[in-house]
């Protein structure tokens, strides 16, 4: 086991000096060029460690550790949220008209204008406040977390809240805790102050990073009381957002020591596999690097909302044009009222001061323009924005409540963090996904291996099983299910089954000695740390990555159990090939040449119990095969075949090889290696690379491993559905290119027939320049290389599919360095053109920041996304329909009254139309309507393209709904006007006035817009029935209650319903006729459209209506009418397999015919 030292208080300090093991990651910091800038601009920060209260520290006035992510503060909420509301041009317009309503120019009362605006603004502000309070609660939880802080003189550590931390504080962070600020690592539970850090919250990676404090601090700071007299000063860079660099110096007593990012522990990363660390707070709160990387939450607006703004602007133009034309006509008619020819005597122009004064007609026209602008404001739906916000919040609640998006394993439901962009879920063109933790579980399983040219392992990957089941191959599927069956408990990281090597049977194999070396290499070549459960004796492992853990677990299960690591030795229990018994062997660990992205391999140098020096190595195939000795390639051909097979199955592969090292050679290597490690020059790493490169050659091939980077449940199926929906998928991963390509095959983003366009900077020219070290030359050459590769890729796509395969597809694979150059302003359009021409894009060595359960994207996008888009689009179109219907009746009445700026309706009728009599049905439409059920959304994925192409909110559809509103308004006004011209409404012979005509028109408007809703809805619920018929009933109830109030308040609506409208049969007959004539045009249009040129969702509705949803031929016919060729996913892979099979049989038939002819 690991050697431990019992410290005061019973704590254990691990005495494993990992600095002797690692070659690269844990290294001494050296002075670099950047260190010369300390003290200058950008490098002025001074930290007094363990002296946060000193006068010098207090003069610095650095930021506290309190963080705030809220959009508002208590003081700024009202002014800032009001500003946000009145940024919307419609709300600003209603504010202006509300102010004008306080003047004599207003055609209606001020209260009836300002009250609806106030309600709308208040509702929006309440929604903003609720959302910001959620952010506030999250801030409170983070700021109130506890951490142990050094008390100062007494040497004790006490728990304090994160928000109380100050620059210079010494903190003690325990295993599995998050770092509360950016810390300078001083020491850890390991003797040489190494610690393991998980940075998933920063860069999305779950692989552990190794950090190491300086020897000068770790050698003296072991216990809490050691900090009582500790004093030091850190001078370093100012706060910045770069997560991967840190430049500073530590002044400790008389020493000046260089600091690098290797000593920096970043806020929000987690301590793993290390019992505790001590650190000095360097950056706090908003100065920390993770907060520096965050941005203020922007006011996000969807594409539909931005287009809606354009419609609002268009409506403003219509309103101003109508007001302008009406004002001109009004001015002309007013001027004609001079000289005793007054036709509009009832307006009393002789008593008018300005408005109807024939002598001042131009000013009357100007005043009329302002009045008309207020009157026609009802063309603009005042409740549109707030209704959309309410609908989006309710949609988010339904998404969160969807039981099919509940992840039972972690007890997590869906959680919509914002409701601003719901409809965008139905308009996604490209999905950018991380790999680790998104497509995969980052849970590696050892599943196959190739040893001495023989393939072992009968395990089946998820991709293979899914493809077999989907292909309808029942026999193959049965075989796979049998192979998948396993007896005994599940072992994490191990999914290997093969009776030839399990339970010690490997000793019976012909190449048993090679198998022994292979399994021994797995047990020895790693940096994992064993932990033995004292109660059960079970050995578990803490490793830097899941890959490492899977390898040591596999070795253990195959009979080579790694159980102890000491300062310079690795102990394993293995089966002795000669005696057939378990023996314990100790391998003296001399060096570890660890894996990194440049080397693509890892090696250890050990001495066995017989005194032999062994170099054990594992790495990527493209670097390992070229390092094999001539006599070490015995199994190369077969191993390459197996590696290709494993890659096709989506497995991650490594090549295992070894060699014996001569004593003299090792002495020379050790001397050069130690000199290179101790170097303080800038070319230190290149020296180490060169020395290790010479050692890791002339290897003897043992075989290859294959681990499954286990996909999350349903990922291949989800990708297939998204691909059928026409959504492009880009994968961003921090992995190396080979791994990224493997996972691309695993999740069906890539397939064998695809042409891969690979852009990277691994060319010999770039490598040579990197060795020369001229930064400007390297940068220029890299840029030119990337541009050239992009142009070549674009040319390949432009040539189009080959004659032999019209289904040819392209995949773009680009590494992070190349991506940096490709996204420069001068070249990003070229990159975009290239990327959009490819079926899939994989970006390697990236740092994505989002994590998700990928399979839920299928339901989130194809079902909820489509519904949200369809509902919001229909909702907005309907809003403009009903407001145009209402507004045009106002315009026609005013035109009928010679543009006298008289409204057709009572003041409160005007105010409450958008608030009470037509708002709830449209909200219900936005929340509950389903143009197509969830089952059909899955069955016809390309339905999703309606959102991507924005077909349901196109200008054609918007104008169509507006035209429908115009038709409805014309029917309402002219039928009502004509029907009322010769009607008497009481025994005294009273004819219809504004009160009766207005009441009749308003009733017709309420009925027509609500019945139009009935025709537009595809999916009725009891809620919609209640709000639609309830809105109509509410109008009649309001009319009776409002009409019963004193005439000073109800004005011309006083008892108009009970005494005039209700008793008159013509009122009811007119309402019926208007409903028929206003709605028949829409009904006829929809019937013709459904029959002769249906949209895709209407075709699916027709299938459901005709009951043909289970007729496979009819369904396939409908699907093929709209689905384009799918180039990504398992469907495309099966189609390609069928095409290959067809071409094979065609070729076979040709050959058969040719042979027959020759025989004749």
Structure description:
It contains 39 helices and 31 strands. It is an alpha+beta fold and 1160 residues long.
Topology:
Elements: E1 4-6, E2 12-14, E3 45-49, H1 55-60, H2 77-86, H3 89-100, H4 110-143, E4 146-150, E5 157-161, E6 170-174, E7 182-188, E8 194-198, H5 200-203, E9 209-212, H6 215-218, E10 232-236, E11 248-252, E12 255-259, E13 264-265, E14 270-272, E15 276-283, H7 289-293, H8 303-335, H9 361-375, H10 384-400, E16 430-434, H11 435-439, E17 440-451, E18 454-456, H12 462-470, H13 474-484, H14 512-524, E19 529-532, E20 539-542, H15 546-557, E21 560-565, E22 569-575, E23 582-593, E24 601-607, E25 613-619, H16 621-624, H17 636-648, E26 652-661, H18 663-677, H19 684-695, E27 700-711, H20 715-724, E28 728-732, H21 737-746, E29 755-759, H22 764-772, H23 775-798, E30 810-815, H24 816-822, H25 828-836, E31 840-844, H26 856-896, H27 907-917, H28 919-928, H29 934-939, H30 945-948, H31 955-980, H32 994-1016, H33 1022-1044, H34 1047-1050, H35 1056-1061, H36 1065-1092, H37 1096-1106, H38 1112-1122, H39 1130-1159
Helix pairs in contact: 2-4, 3-4, 4-10, 4-27, 8-9, 8-26, 10-26, 10-28, 12-13, 14-15, 18-19, 20-26, 22-23, 23-24, 23-25, 26-28, 26-31, 26-32, 28-33, 31-32, 31-36, 32-33, 32-36, 37-38
Protein name: Phospholipid-transporting ATPase
Membrane topology: Multi-pass membrane protein
Catalytic activity: ATP + H2O + phospholipidSide 1 = ADP + phosphate + phospholipidSide 2
């Amino acid at each position: 086991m690991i050697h431990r030292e019992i410290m005061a208080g019973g704590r254990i300090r691990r005495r494993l000096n990992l600095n002797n093991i690692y070659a690269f990651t844990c290294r001494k910091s050296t002075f670099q060029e950047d260190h010369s800038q300390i003290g200058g601009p950008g490098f002025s920060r001074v930290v007094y460690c363990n002296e946060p209260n000193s006068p010098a520290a207090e003069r610095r006035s650095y930021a506290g550790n309190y963080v705030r992510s809220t959009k508002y503060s208590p003081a700024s909420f009202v002014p800032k949220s009001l500003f946000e509301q009145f940024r919307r041009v419609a709300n600003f317009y209603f504010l202006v008209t509300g102010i004008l309503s306080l003047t004599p120019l207003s055609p209606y009362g001020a209260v009836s204008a300002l009250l609806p605006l106030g309600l709308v603004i208040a509702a929006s502000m309440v929604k903003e406040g609720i959302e910001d309070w959620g952010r506030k609660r999250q801030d409170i939880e983070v700021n109130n977390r506890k951490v142990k802080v050094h008390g100062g003189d007494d040497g004790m550590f006490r728990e304090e809240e994160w928000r109380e931390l100050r620059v210079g504080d010494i903190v003690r962070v325990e295993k599995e805790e998050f770092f509360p600020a950016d810390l300078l690592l001083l020491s850890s539970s390991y003797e040489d102050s190494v610690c393991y850090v998980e940075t998933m919250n920063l860069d999305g990676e779950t692989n552990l990073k190794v950090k190491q404090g300086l020897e000068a601090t770790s050698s003296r700071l072991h216990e809490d009381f050691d900090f009582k007299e500790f004093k030091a000063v850190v001078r370093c860079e100012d706060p910045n957002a770069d997560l991967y660099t840190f430049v500073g110096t530590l002044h400790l007593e008389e020493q000046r020591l260089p600091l690098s990012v290797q000593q920096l522990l970043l806020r929000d990363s987690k301590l793993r596999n290390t019992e505790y660390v001590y650190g000095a707070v360097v950056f706090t709160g908003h100065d920390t690097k993770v907060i520096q990387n965050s941005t203020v939450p922007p006011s996000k607006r969807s594409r539909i909302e931005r287009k809606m703004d354009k419609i609002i602007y268009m409506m403003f133009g219509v309103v101003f044009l109508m007001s302008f034309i009406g004002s001109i006509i009004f001015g002309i008619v007013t001027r004609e009222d001079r000289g005793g020819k007054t036709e509009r005597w009832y307006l009393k122009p002789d008593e008018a001061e300005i408005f109807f004064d024939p002598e001042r007609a131009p000013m009357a026209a100007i005043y009329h323009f302002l009045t008309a602008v207020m009157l026609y404001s009802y063309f603009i739906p005042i409740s549109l924005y707030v209704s959309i916000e309410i609908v989006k919040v309710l949609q988010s609640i339904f998404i969160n409540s969807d039981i099919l998006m509940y992840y039972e394993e972690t007890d997590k439901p869906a959680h919509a963090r914002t409701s601003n962009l719901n409809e965008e879920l139905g308009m996604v063109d490209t999905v950018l996904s991380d790999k680790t933790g998104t497509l995969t579980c980052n849970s590696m399983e050892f599943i196959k291996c190739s040893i001495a040219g023989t393939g072992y392992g009968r395990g089946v990957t998820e991709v293979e099983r899914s493809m077999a089941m989907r292909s309808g191959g029942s026999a193959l599927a049965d075989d796979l299910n049998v192979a998948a069956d396993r007896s005994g408990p599940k072992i994490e990281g191990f999914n290997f089954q093969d009776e030839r090597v399990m339970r010690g049977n490997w000793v019976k194999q012909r190449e048993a000695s090679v198998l022994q070396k292979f399994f021994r290499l797995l047990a020895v070549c790693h940096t994992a740390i064993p932990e033995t459960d004292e109660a059960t004796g079970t050995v578990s492992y803490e490793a830097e990555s899941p890959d490492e853990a899977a390898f040591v677990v596999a070795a253990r299960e195959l009979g080579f159990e790694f159980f102890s690591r000491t300062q310079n030795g690795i102990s394993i229990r293995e089966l002795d090939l000669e005696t057939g018994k378990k023996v314990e062997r100790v391998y003296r660990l001399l060096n570890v040449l660890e894996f990194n992205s440049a080397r693509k391999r890892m090696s250890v140098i050990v001495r066995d119990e017989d005194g032999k020096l062994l170099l054990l190595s594992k790495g990527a195939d493209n670097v390992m095969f070229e390092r094999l000795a001539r006599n070490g390639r015995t199994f190369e051909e077969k191993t390459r075949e197996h590696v290709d097979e494993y890659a096709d199955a989506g497995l991650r592969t490594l090549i295992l090889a070894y060699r014996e090292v001569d004593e003299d050679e090792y002495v020379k290597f050790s001397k050069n290696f130690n000199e290179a490690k101790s170097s303080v020059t800038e070319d230190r790493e290149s020296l180490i690379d060169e020395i290790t490169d010479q050692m890791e050659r002339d290897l003897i091939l043992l075989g290859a491993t294959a681990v499954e980077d286990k996909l999350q449940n349903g990922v291949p199926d989800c990708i297939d559905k998204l691909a059928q929906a026409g959504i492009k998928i880009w994968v961003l991963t921090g992995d190396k290119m080979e791994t990224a390509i493997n996972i691309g095959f695993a999740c069906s983003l890539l397939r064998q027939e695809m042409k891969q366009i690979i852009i990277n900077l691994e060319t010999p020219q770039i490598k040579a320049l990197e060795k020369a070290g001229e930064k400007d030359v390297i940068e220029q050459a890299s840029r030119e290389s990337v541009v050239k590769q992009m142009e070549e890729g674009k040319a390949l796509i432009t040539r189009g599919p080959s004659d032999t395969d019209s289904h040819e597809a392209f995949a773009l694979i680009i590494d992070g360095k190349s991506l940096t150059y490709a996204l420069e302003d001068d070249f990003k359009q070229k990159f975009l053109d290239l990327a959009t021409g490819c079926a899939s894009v994989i970006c390697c060595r990236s740092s994505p920041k989002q994590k998700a359960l990928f399979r839920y994207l299928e339901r989130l996008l194809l079902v909820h996304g489509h519904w949200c888009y369809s509902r919001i689009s229909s909702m907005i179109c309907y809003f403009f329909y009903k407001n145009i219907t209402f507004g045009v009746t106002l315009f026609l009445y005013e035109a009928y009254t010679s543009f006298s700026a008289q409204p057709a309706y009572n003041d409160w009728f005007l105010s409450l139309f958008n608030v009470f009599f037509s708002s709830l049905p449209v909200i219900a439409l936005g929340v509950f309507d389903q143009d197509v059920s969830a089952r059909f959304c899955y069955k016809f994925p390309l339905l999703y393209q309606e959102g991507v192409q924005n077909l349901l909110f196109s200008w054609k559809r918007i104008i169509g709904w507006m035209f429908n509103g115009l038709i409805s308004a014309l029917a309402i006004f002219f039928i009502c006007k004509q029907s009322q011209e010769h009607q008497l409404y009481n025994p005294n012979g009273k004819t219809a006035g504004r009160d009766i005509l207005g009441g009749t028109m308003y009733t017709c408007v309420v009925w027509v817009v609500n019945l139009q809703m009935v025709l537009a809805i595809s999916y009725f619920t009891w809620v919609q029935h209640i709000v639609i018929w309830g809105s109509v009933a509410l109008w009649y109830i309001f009319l009776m209650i409002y009409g019963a109030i004193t005439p000073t308040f109800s004005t011309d609506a006083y008892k108009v319903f009970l005494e005039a409208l209700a008793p008159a049969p013509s009122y009811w007959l007119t309402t019926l006729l208007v409903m028929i004539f206003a709605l028949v045009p829409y009904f006829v249009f929809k019937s013709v459209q459904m029959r002769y040129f249906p949209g895709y969702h209407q075709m699916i509705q027709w299938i459901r209506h005709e009951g043909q949803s289970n007729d496979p031929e009819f369904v396939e016919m409908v699907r093929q009418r709209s689905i384009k060729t799918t180039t990504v996913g398992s469907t495309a892979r099966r189609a390609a397999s069928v095409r290959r099979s067809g071409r094979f049989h065609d070729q076979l038939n040709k050959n058969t015919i040719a042979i027959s002819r020759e025989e004749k």
